[in-house]
Amino acid sequence: MRLITIDDVRDAATRIRGSVVRTPLVPAPWGDTERPLWIKPENLQPVGAFKVRGAFNALGRLTADERGRGVVAYSSGNHAQAVAYAAAAMSVQSTIVMPEETPNVKVAATRGHGAEVVLCGAGERERVADEVLARTGGVLIPPFDHPDVIAGQGTAGLEIAEDLPDVANVLVPVSGGGLASGVGTAVKALCPNARVFGVEPELAADTAQSLREGRRVDWPIADRNRTIADGLRSQPSQLTFAHLQRVLDDLFTVTEDQIRSAVRELALRSHLVAEPSGAVALAAYRSAALPPGPTVLLVSGGNIEPALLADLLSA
């Protein structure tokens, strides 16, 4: 198994330049004085989430023959939109498998980018995707279990290191682990004194348990589906878990109430719309015992159902 390097991330940055937004580091003066806070707002990407980085890098690495066959992806939402968006930009046909419980706003957005959407039952994404691959002859672009996807996500970490070289703490949401793997690789290479912390919901804390035990543990999908953070219900692959073991200094878990409060705080204090999955880093910033020093939290996405956002803001 080959883990990605900073050179892979730099190559990805060159490949996707012009296709994704180089999101700024937004200062948050309402943060802790001992841990000055900056926000990396990946919700400002064209599809509302960081996933567009890995999608453009992975599709950009395909041969002309592979592009002609079309691409297939499976996702709870943000990777689906990213692959559909990148495929449309490259004139590539895309078919996306999405769980039936995916928020409607994400399904509609994926179809809006021209993708064929195939809905499936909980825990059946990979099996149905295999059926679609057999039917279409397409190329699979997985949501996190691929070095090109991980390297693409790592470009967010490259930007953090370039914009804040003295960063002390970086907080990153963890689900399948592609984002934290890539960001951690870049930050550790360029800012060796920085600490990288993963964050996941208590109701989907399979990665926290896996890191404690030194092996991947499996949580039933029914358990992981309890969290409001629908984008953080996946589990790391062998490849991403190996990266997480290498680059994470620790992993914090947050409660559902803390996640809800973080969505509200981002909206009211920073004027940023974040989905629950995208707000977990702020939840950890507020609740975890972080070391002092300049801190960056990554808002991974902002694709939230309007009714849910209204409910959270009115609480």
TrEMBL record:
Q: Which domain of life is it from?
A: Bacteria
The record's Gene3D superfamilies line, in alphabetical order, gives: 3.40.50.1100
Question: InterPro entries per the record?
Answer: Ser/Thr_Dehydratase, TrpB-like_PALP, TrpB-like_PALP_sf
Cite the Pfam families for this sequence.
Answer: PALP
Q: Which keywords does this chain's UniProt record carry? A: Lyase, Pyridoxal phosphate
User: Which cofactors does this protein require?
Assistant: pyridoxal 5'-phosphate
Q: Where is the Tryptophan synthase beta chain-like PALP domain?
A: 19-301
Q: What is this protein called?
A: Threonine/serine dehydratase
Q: Which organism is it from?
A: Mycolicibacterium arenosum
Q: Specify the taxonomic lineage.
A: Bacteria, Bacillati, Actinomycetota, Actinomycetes, Mycobacteriales
